[in-house]
Amino acid sequence: MLTKVHTGLEAVPGIWWQPAHKTEKVWVAVAFAWCMVLFAMMPLWHWKGGQNPSGVRTRVDPKAYFARTVKFAQQYKVGDDRGIPIVQPPPGADVYLVGLTYQWYPILKLEQGKEYMLHMSSLDVNHGFSLYPLNVNFAVVPTFDYALRVTPTAAGDFRIICNEFCGIGHHTMVGRVIVVDSAGRSVADNTGARVGYGGAR
Amino acid sequence: MTAAAMGAVPGFRTCPATGHKIDRQAELLIKVNAVVAVVALLVGATAALLLALTRWQAVHLLPAVWYYRILGVHGMNMLIFFIIFFEMAVLWFAGTVLLDARPAAPKYGWFNFGLMLVGSLIVEAMQWSGRADVLYTSYPPLKAHPAFYLGIILFAVGALGVVGQFFATLTIAKREKTYAGSMPLVVYGAVAAAIIAVITLLHGAAVYIPTLLWSLGIIPTINPQIYRLLWWALGHSAQQINVAAMVAIWYMLGALTVGAVVLNEKVSRWAFVLYILFISMASAHHLLVDPGFGPEWKIVNTSYFMYMAVLASMVHGFTVPAGMELGMRLRGFTDGMFGWLRRAPWGDPGFSSLVLSVVVFGFFGGITGVTLGTEQINIIAHNTLRIPGHFHATVVSGTAVAFMGATYYLLPLVFRRKVAFWKLAQWQPYLFAGGMLLVETGMTFAGSFGVPRRHWDISFSQAPFDVPFNPAVDLFLAMVGIGAIIAVIGAYSFILIAVKSVFFGEPVTSFPRGVVVAGIPQGLTHPPVHAANVNEINEKLHAPGGSKLGPTPGTVVLVTAFFLAFVLYYFTNWKLLSFLWKIG
Amino acid sequence: MYPSPDDAPKSERIPLGQRLFDNVYLLLALGLLVMLVVFTGWGMWEILSIPQGTLP
């Protein structure tokens, strides 16, 4: 029993709480099933998939975190690039990265296929960790230590773009991550880069 | 007070086209909110052009300080001032005109409008003078001048006031029995928008009042993660107001342009109720790669509670075009599967806006939104240009285009003026939507290469390290620039038409039936009325044994194509995610 | 019971679902409640219960 034909502009007298026609029922059933698939994918990926933003999340004082990062850099320093230490921690280690206006500190040198606990936080304002060209993106929020278990899957010379507006120098904020392969080789050295106005402050 | 008596009361006029009783005070409030909305659109569209010509690296128009400054201006003017002033007009319209009712306490309508206007001017002044270089989101510890936050609070209080008046108007209309039965579906959609607006604005108060106190030095710190939680409850939910309002307008434009019918009130209203209950939770989309929350909270919220609000959108995605198809088939457009669509009034800018809005919102905006809002997929998308690529497809190509389409009917019906520059008006939706599609496509592809949003210079000319983007990125950013030029011409056209019509347009006092009039859309001169035996025809169409695909076969084909596109895009993104480092 | 169905009092005929859906204030209350509990309340709890880090 269909209600009288009417448009969405007309008031609806009587009982409009009627069963749907078969076509609508089928579409709702299909859409509902799809929604269940969409919902199931997320827990499924936690169970079976390799990329999840869970991490180990703690509260920190920004200055204390920065000091810890500096200590980490000094402990595992293997070189320098444009005034920023290149730091090579052993596999399995707690690795510290800090974002501050306007740089990423330090430069990390990691090994392909090995797992690290990558800690991220900010000394001052919100920053955005964006690992180029893979496109790995995380929010870097001051007073929070976002620690993620990461395993680089390929060697290369990566960049960390800041993709959260942090002030007038936001577009000069670029970091570097070097991943060496199992023989200890990095892919090309950063010969194409130019010395710019930025760098460590 | 009965509806009959109201026509004789001096506070009302009777619409010559629809027969609705229009309260004169409500009418004035509709007009003034719509006009201010268009002024904000002008500011926002100009800002858009400047920004796009800066992201197009070959042009790189603005210097850094002005890029970030105008980016904030663009966000505020488009996402808050333009859209919310227009929605206030929609609420005044839906609560009074569509119900033949008088507005509740219209004097307060002016007070609330004043609050919104003063608030928006203060915010504008702060942004342009460089005292609020914190972008639209103003994340602490970035800090703006206190007046910036105060202006937003005034605006929000005014808007909340209007929403309250809308609810009061509904109560009055029900009590005074100005309509029989349940309110029209279009008004129901406006109710969904209004409820989401309450959720939005209350969270706005919760986030901006402490932030104002912090900017004044009265409280020492703001927890940056709590700010992000509460701000996005305001910021993303505001976009869901837009979704509900847009869908309500879809039903309205469908009815006005082609006599679209409501397939089943229960089904469509269920979809609006699901919006009310669950759609605001998806504010979590912006917090999926934040440290503040565990996976359970992220999964439950980002899924709008097991994707029930997505179910709602998919329902409207069927019932809106199906209602149009059925409405046309009932009026005799029964040739083939798509004869109704081919022979539809494509020269009516109200109709073309409707179709463009539905198609681009659904296929581009909706699919990308659900995909990018998946907890893990967000890892490859957060803060890249894919995000603006998504939301321009929803809020601009979806909501703004629908609002523009509604304006083409608002002008002759409420402002009682012919639509000026009629030939231009007929092309305007295509121009605007076409340009925007280029912008959205360019943004989405550039973002998938890692290009960040809200960023002045991806050549990184002032950075210590180079970032050698794939050269295709330059092509995509040029696409954004060129698309923006076309879209802004489309936006300026709309504004020109609106301003000329409202202030200098030819007055309309009657709607001659059956005559094609330049400046009056066909839905008003050739109203899509249904035959006297329409219910008989409807029963026949729904009888078993008809077409395998039911009474609306064309729509079934369209939604099937949509579904396949959804499945493909969604799983492709999971595949792309799997190529990443292991992260957990 | 009545000469014709139209003579029955309205409240006897309108299904519960329709009456609930017509209740704007109920919908407002539910919409607010769900959001405030599932998103805001739970979200605040998540943030505030993050433990202090030891920076190992």
User: What's the β-strand tally of chain B?
Assistant: 3
Mean pLDDT of chain C, as a whole number? Answer: 87
Helix share, percent of chain B: 55-70%
| Major β-sheet profile of chain C | none
| Helix run count of chain B | 18
How many structural units, i.e. domains of chain B? 1
Order of helices and strands of chain C: HHH
Description of the molecule:
The complex is a heterotrimer of chains A (201), B (584) and C (56). With 201 residues, chain A is α+β, with helices and mostly antiparallel strands. Chain A is 21% helix and 34% strand. Chain B has helices at residues 3-8, 24-55, 64-96, 106-128, 146-175, 185-215, 224-258, 265-278, 295-302, 304-330, 339-342, 349-372, 386-413, 422-448, 472-504, 522-525, 534-542, 553-578; strands at residues 12-14, 21-23, 582-583. Chain B has a two-stranded antiparallel sheet. Chain C has 3 helices and no strands. The longest helix of chain C has 25 residues, at 24-48. Chains in contact: A-B, A-C, B-C. Strand 10 of chain A pairs antiparallel with strand 3 (582-583) of chain B, so a sheet runs across the interface.
